[in-house]
């Protein structure tokens, strides 16, 4: 067994006591229809984040959902506080969970961070969504992680997923 498979098994065991027992085959199969279906389903984002951890890129989905929450903030004071936190966590160079965005987008956020608007992270969020949709989502669908999960549900909860 490869170290990567071990990692996947360990992660799945950790998740197994939580959401995987609540997953339906129908939901899991819908994830392969589109990235949008995965990210908007009940358990898809949590399972996808678990997979992204194996690729060391879970900051992408964290940032995307943080932006979704940010857009709902109505208080300017809270918006400034959350915008600064998003900036220091994901945007600034050498941030602890720095996301992969191009320099012009980063510079525009830096320019607007003092008076952040509801949409100041929209372009960065769009880029991260595209990265996930084009890069990690196809790998997720082909991964042993997703294939074993799907197989396990197809065989009615057979314990073959966990070695």
Distance between the termini: 10 Å
Secondary-structure-derived class: mainly alpha
Low-pLDDT sequence parts: 1-8, 158-163
Radius of gyration, in angstroms, nearest whole number: 18 Å
* Main beta sheet: none
CATH homolog superfamily: Regulator of G-protein Signalling 4, domain 2
Q: How many beta-strand elements? A: 0
Average pLDDT metric: 87
Envelope shape = elongated
- Strand content is under 5%
Can you count the helices? 9
CATH topology: Regulator of G-protein Signalling 4, domain 2
Under CATH at level 1, the class stands as: Mainly Alpha
Helix content: 55-70%
CATH architecture: Orthogonal Bundle
Which terms summarize this structure?
Regulator of G-protein Signalling 4, domain 2, elongated, disordered N terminus, disordered C terminus
Structure, briefly:
This protein has 163 residues and is mostly helical.
What does this structure look like?
This protein has 163 residues and is mainly alpha-helical. The protein has a single domain, classed as Regulator of G-protein Signalling 4, domain 2, CATH 1.10.167.10. The protein has helices spanning 3-16, 25-30, 35-40, 44-54, 59-70, 76-91, 103-112, 122-142, 144-154. The longest helix is centred in the last third of the chain and has 21 residues, at 122-142. Residues 1-8 and 158-163 have low confidence and may be disordered. Residues 34-150 form the RGS domain. InterPro entries: RGS, RGS_sf, RGS_subdomain_2. This is RGS13 protein. Pfam families: RGS (PF00615).
């Amino acid at each position: 067994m490869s170290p990567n498979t071990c990692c996947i098994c360990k992660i799945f065991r950790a998740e197994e006591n939580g959401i995987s027992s609540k997953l339906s085959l129908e939901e899991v199969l819908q994830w392969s229809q589109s990235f949008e279906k995965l990210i908007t389903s009940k358990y898809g984002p949590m399972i996808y984040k678990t997979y992204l951890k194996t690729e060391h890129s879970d900051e992408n989905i964290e940032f995307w959902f943080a932006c979704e929450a940010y857009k709902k903030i109505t208080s300017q004071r809270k918006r400034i506080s959350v915008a600064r936190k998003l900036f220091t966590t994901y945007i600034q160079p050498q941030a602890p969970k720095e996301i992969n965005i191009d320099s012009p987008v980063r510079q525009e956020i830096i320019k607007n961070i003092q008076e952040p608007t509801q949409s100041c992270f929209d372009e960065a969020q769009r880029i991260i969504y595209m990265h996930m949709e084009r890069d990690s989502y196809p790998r997720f669908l082909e991964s042993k992680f997703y294939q074993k999960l799907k197989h396990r549900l197809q065989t009615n909860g057979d314990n073959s997923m966990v070695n």
